Amino acid sequence: MKVGLTARQLVILAADYFNEGLKDPEDGRKRFESCQFLWQQMKLQTEQLQEELNRKLFDNLISFLKKSHSDFHDQKSGWSCRVRSSEIPTAALLLGKLFFSYIHLINNSTELMPSSPGHWQAPPVVVVFKDLESFPANVLQEFIVISSYVENQTPETQVKFLTNDSYLKETAQTFLENLHSYHENFIPVLRCLHQFTCILPKYPLGKQIRELYCACLEKKVWETEDYISALQLLRMLAKEELVATLQKCVEVLRPYSERQLGGTLKKLEEFLVQLQCHEGKILATLLEMKETRRTKKLSKFESLRLEVIDFLDSLVRDYLAPPETQPLYEVVYFSAASILRKHLNAVPRIAFHTALNNPSSYLKSLENEAGALTNAAPDICIAYKLHLECGRLINLYDWLEAFATVVNTNDDSDLDSLEPVDEMTHARFIRAVSELELLGFVKPSKQKTDHVARLTWGGC
């Protein structure tokens, strides 16, 4: 037997908890007000501490940016300055704010902008943000990728971006969703375009799909001369080639849902059906035009072919825009490929010189002896430093004596009491010289058998 019970919902306020077990409600009210007052004081002090911490972190970041390449403009023509500027300094900002007002910063900086573009040259600086998702919304408001979008909006929208946190978060979420949709639509349309361009003579947009992909990433591909010439060639395709290419495009788009590209697949299938159904009529029309030599009026096949190519051109303009047109594209794209390539493609000679001349840059155990020639360094480093002090030809015996002096001498030993070179030291020296010869720093001399020729100069 089921009994239906209905209970009245009770609304319990926070102040009611302070009245439990008390006879006088006034005491509970005072306790509640005291608790609220203390909580507001704690919250205020925490916010003040957070603001002070943010200010100090931001001041340290500004100081880091100023000191990272302080002598770049004064000595940028020097070799040592160019070498130091090739290293990108990196700072880690754990929490805090960026500029309190990006627009205010821009307005103040316009008065200090130098007239010469050369004054703006400076090496890159990297700032690493940890746990960006937990940052307050005003950090994203000052972010450059957001500010570049805000600048092109109406004044009302700009105010909402800078004052309404909820609107900013919703807009940022919309940007990310649009960026995801952009990627979903980009690839299938790119593959369709490649099906058309890979059959053209001389491959104006590249034979491989990666070449077409790079062209679409760099600029608006429909504004390039190669794309215009490709469209001209496509407007002269034969019926068999056009039908075969459309069939390939239909197979490419079939795995994708209609939600991504709308009615693109259906439209291509309609073109394919029209071309196949009017085969006899199209051939008859072509023969008739060839006999009468009428070139002014287009046949049905030519009109349908132009319609197909125009539809392909509209797909390219709608879905193959470069990433720079999408807000927040900097989240997944990196445009300064030359800087990245410069640091990934290492220079072996400079790396060898740094490792051999200053092993403390790689070995932490030698940090206290940076730049000093001691027996704690590897044998090849000792031999390399000694060979830098020699001329074009190096006497092997003198080199061995200097090597043994460094290897067998302690800080508290007497140089006059050194013993002759033992077999172990001799073997270590031979191995170090052989390694230097393998790296291309020295080679045997044909002039003197007891000498080796030095092959590098200038410290590297």
From TrEMBL:
One of its GO terms (molecular function) is DNA replication origin binding. Residues 146-279, 283-337 form the Origin recognition complex subunit 3 insertion domain. It is found in: Nucleus. Coiled coil: none annotated. Keywords: DNA replication, DNA-binding, Nucleus, Phosphoprotein. Transmembrane segments: none annotated. Residues 349-457 form the Origin recognition complex subunit 3 winged helix C-terminal domain. It comes from the Eukaryota. Pfam families: ORC3_ins, ORC3_N, WHD_ORC. Residues 12-96 form the Origin recognition complex subunit 3 N-terminal domain. GO terms for cellular component: DNA replication preinitiation complex; nuclear origin of replication recognition complex; nuclear pre-replicative complex. One of its GO terms (biological process) is DNA replication initiation. Belongs to the ORC3 family. Component of ORC, a complex composed of at least 6 subunits: ORC1, ORC2, ORC3, ORC4, ORC5 and ORC6. ORC is regulated in a cell-cycle dependent manner. It is sequentially assembled at the exit from anaphase of mitosis and disassembled as cells enter S phase. Component of the origin recognition complex (ORC) that binds origins of replication. DNA-binding is ATP-dependent. The specific DNA sequences that define origins of replication have not been identified yet. ORC is required to assemble the pre-replication complex necessary to initiate DNA replication. Binds histone H3 and H4 trimethylation marks H3K9me3, H3K27me3 and H4K20me3. This is Origin recognition complex subunit 3. It comes from Pyxicephalus adspersus (African bullfrog). The lineage of its organism: Eukaryota, Metazoa, Chordata, Craniata, Vertebrata.
